[in-house]
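Changelog entry

Holo records now carry the ligand SMILES as an explicit input line rather than a separate metadata file. Below, a converted record for 2-acetamido-2-deoxy-beta-D-glucopyranose, shown in the new format.
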Amino acid sequence: MTSTFHFLPLCTLLFLIISPSSLAQTSFLPKDLVLPISKDASSLQYIAQLNQRTPLVPIKLTLDLGGQFLWVDCEQHYASSTYKPIRCHSAQCSLANGNGCGECYSSPKLGCNNNTCSQFPDNTVTHTATGGELAQDVVSIQSTNGLNPGRVVSVSSFIFTCGPTFLLKGLASGVKGMAGLGRTRISVPSQFSTAFSFHRKFAICLSSSTSFDGVMFFGDGPYVLLPNNDVSKSLIYTPLIKNPVSTASAYTQGDPSAEYFIGVKSININGKVVPLNQTLLSIDHKGFGGTKISTVNPYTIMETSIYNAVLKAFIKALANVPRAASVAPFGACFSSKNIGSTRVGPAVPQIDFVLQSESVFWTVFGSNSMVQVSNDVLCLGFVDGGSKPRTSIVIGGYQIEDNLLQFDLATSRLGFSSSLLFQRTTCANFNFTTNA
Ligand SMILES: *[C@@H]1O[C@H](CO)[C@@H](O)[C@H](O)[C@H]1NC(C)=O
Ligand SMILES: *[C@@H]1O[C@H](CO)[C@@H](O)[C@H](O)[C@H]1NC(C)=O
Ligand SMILES: *[C@@H]1O[C@H](CO)[C@@H](O)[C@H](O)[C@H]1NC(C)=O
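Structure line, unchanged by the conversion:
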């Protein structure tokens, strides 16, 4: 059964609910929504699939945790009777931080013109941005009670940015755009929360397997993984930090203020503090430095001096294991024959990102630190980010797999579970059998 909702002010929504003619359609307000998230084996991107347009078409999208909005290729194969361009100077245009009006870049066939609100879609994998325009169309998704997917619900005027086909270059095969989950008014989670009046929270749980899907939830818990484990109950919290620099209305790649930063104060390896340049761990007035979480980087990237210090400490702590030749892009590889295994992966020194206090830390165990590059070689899955990166530490996809991360936009805090393998479950354990 499909319920239709409109992206309208609350008073209008209430009117729709009490109006008898629309009662059947709108009497169901979901508290949570759910999406399977797959991992693409060749690009290592995490892929979501939303249904969009009229008639509905499944659209594969690369997940971009810090992305500003949903953008899709409107130049090719976009057909929909419900597509509406967003006019410049409209309320939606200002909500979306639109960049004025004028040019129609990628959707002239769909009806954009010189009175359409401009926006810059960006491919944050290849660091490419270009001109595009804002539009609205129907998006549908499954609701959930936290245990199983339930009935399908839809948002009739979901705001997105239209981009040209060439912007897809570098994205996984079959993907038609990117799903931005960032801290903006028109990111995918913000629009769902507004449309259904639920908590401004969402959670991602990325699978480490390219065969079994992980899961993402919009709304508050429960988030139940088999066998009957509500993982929303075992979260540790840390403040989310906002980068003060916004480039949202510039022709640039990404917007730092939309991204999710956390306050890493130090890094410990086997409980010992790694000496690091503290200046690099905080965000300066130009928006440089700090630690963010990203789903478009497959591995954690560290500024050179941090990377070298962490590598040195890790190698020292694992001195009893023979080194193997490095395999790019990694700098510390080991013979796996000499490394035992545990419930949380290879038995290697644990790496702690120490947060707001000594007692709050995010531990990275072997399953999230070591990458199997061949039968007998394991490498530390961190990459050298050079000496002047914008962000000092970018925690990448491999390090957050099989961890549940909940982003609470209202209170600006992150809830993290650490490795779910400890709790004998994984992110591939949501029961996707529909219970309508
Ligand atoms: C916008 O397009 C209309 C119709 O094509 C045209 O008449 C008008 O001059 C254009 N305005 C500007 C400012 O380019
Ligand atoms: C620490 O990093 C800052 C910012 O990059 C730099 O200016 C400073 O020289 C560094 N300090 C040391 C001791 O390397
Ligand atoms: C998954 O959910 C369905 C529907 O509720 C249920 O019948 C089934 O037993 C569940 N599977 C497992 C493994 O619990």
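Spot-checked after migration. Residues 113-114 surround 2-acetamido-2-deoxy-beta-D-glucopyranose (ligand 1) (CB under 6 Å). The radius of gyration is 22 Å.
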